[in-house]
Automatic annotation (TrEMBL):
<protein>
    <recommendedName>
        <fullName>HD domain-containing protein</fullName>
    </recommendedName>
</protein>
<comment type="similarity">
    <text>Belongs to the SAMHD1 family.</text>
</comment>
<dbReference type="InterPro" id="IPR003607">
    <property type="entry name" value="HD/PDEase_dom"/>
</dbReference>
<feature type="coiled-coil region">
    <location>
        <begin position="76"/>
        <end position="110"/>
    </location>
</feature>
<dbReference type="InterPro" id="IPR050135">
    <property type="entry name" value="dGTPase-like"/>
</dbReference>
<keyword id="KW-0175">Coiled coil</keyword>
């Protein structure tokens, strides 16, 4: 029985403040209901930004659901437009049409939605504060060997994979083959669709455009950004001129010819939405200028990172999380397959850590955490360092990564 012929249970409706009422496939709901995903309720999308912008308390949880919804919409739009193209030029594209229909379209859409949903699973407390400020110092990583949260996301997806498949119906479980699970993991990690060699194994090169929906390494235009631009602007109280709906309607798959021997299928947009693309990147610039790189936000997040570093060896939860990330990096760089028990034990230590570590340290009475506690008290009481100056980074300095550390 094929997935498109099987009547699945009705989709669940979520009332989202950004996208309105959205429907999600029952399998996505099963993933949402796992402890691994529910943990994202306790991780703020914008780290310490809520301490400057009081409304910015939204989390990775709702962003992930919004991204999954947009991923499904974009995938469906691309599928429908391709089908129309094939119908118009049926004889000319008969072979391509058969090739396109060999791998089930609905299965592709479901895989893309799962990847968008699970992309953020590997984030630590305060999102990028943990990833970019704390972990590099805690593990003493060099600039070329930074921690990627996508690595933990893939591990966590593998961890919930078995649990979810044990619950879903047999018919649906039979439709998610091994190559689909590989495809989902590749989507989470990201694939360079412009690379001369096609390295992905989850889908063939003809479906390269599918790898640009969740993590677009070709031009940076993907549904994750569409969701968090709209969501962040909403909760920050910053006006948003970017209209992702217009982009959705104009998207289509085109074979783009390059210096490579064969063209590659990419997601492209009509020339008439060029202004929307400009608005998208201008919105990103505005968010970085007014919120993401706000000088007080940067100071607060630096203090939070310093507090976490001071507590690293004194807090069991924190030290175990750092240890688990080190183990994940070690296993990923190795060649041996990680067994299920090892993965579960490592992830159990990591998933206990959420934004709640802030309050745990702040209200602790442990003398060993005094230094970390004082740093967080400085944040709460606004005893922050003053900005005494700034220096513009030239192109030459930017090219030398060591100068930026």
């Amino acid at each position: 029985m094929e997935l498109q012929d099987y009547e699945t249970p009705s989709d669940k409706i979520f009332n989202d403040p950004i996208h309105g009422q959205i429907e999600l496939h029952p399998l996505l709901v099963k993933i949402i209901d796992t402890p691994q995903f529910q943990r994202l309720r306790q991780i703020k999308q914008l780290g310490g930004t809520h301490l400057v912008y009081p409304g910015a308390t939204h989390t990775r949880f709702e962003h992930s659901i919004g991204a999954a919804y947009l991923a499904g919409r974009l995938a469906k739009v691309l599928q429908e437009k391709q089908q129309k193209e094939f119908e118009k030029k049926k004889e000319e594209f008969e072979k391509e049409k058969k090739k396109f229909q060999k791998e089930k379209d609905k299965e592709d859409i479901l895989c893309v939605q799962i990847a968008a949903l699970c992309y953020n699973l590997g984030h630590g407390p305060f999102s990028y504060v943990f990833k970019d400020k704390f972990i590099p110092k805690a593990l003493e990583l060099n600039p070329d060997d930074q921690w990627k949260h996508e690595e933990a996301s893939v591990w966590l997806f593998q961890d919930i994979e078995t649990a979810v498949q044990d619950i879903v119906t047999k018919e649906l479980k039979d439709e998610l083959k091994d190559h689909d699970l590989i495809f989902i993991k590749e989507l989470i990690k990201g694939v360079d669709t412009s690379h001369e060699e096609w390295t992905a194994t989850g889908r063939t090169m003809e479906k390269s455009f599918l790898y640009e929906i969740v993590v677009n390494q070709w031009n940076g235009i993907d549904v994750r950004k569409w969701d968090y631009f709209a969501r962040d602007c909403h909760y920050l109280g910053i006006s948003n001129s970017f209209d992702h709906q217009r982009m959705l309607k104009s998207a289509r798959v085109c074979e783009v010819k390059t210096e490579m021997k064969n063209g590659r299928n990419h997601i492209c947009f009509r020339d008439k939405v060029a202004d929307s693309i400009y608005d998208m990147f201008h919105t990103r610039y505005t968010l970085y200028l007014q919120a993401y790189q706000h000088k007080i936000v940067n100071i607060i997040e630096e203090k939070i990172s310093e507090a976490l570093l001071a507590a690293k060896d004194k807090s069991t939860k924190l030290s175990q999380a750092v240890e688990s990330i080190s183990e994940i990096k070690t296993h990923i760089s190795g060649t041996e397959e990680v067994d299920e028990n090892t993965r579960t034990n490592v992830l159990e230590k990591f998933t206990k850590l959420t934004d709640h570590i802030f309050e745990e340290i702040l209200y602790s009475t442990d003398d060993e955490l005094k230094d970390a506690r004082t740093k967080l008290q400085d944040v709460v009481k606004r005893r922050l360092p003053k900005c005494v100056g700034e220096n513009r980074i030239s192109q030459n300095m930017f090219e030398n990564k060591q100068l930026l550390q």
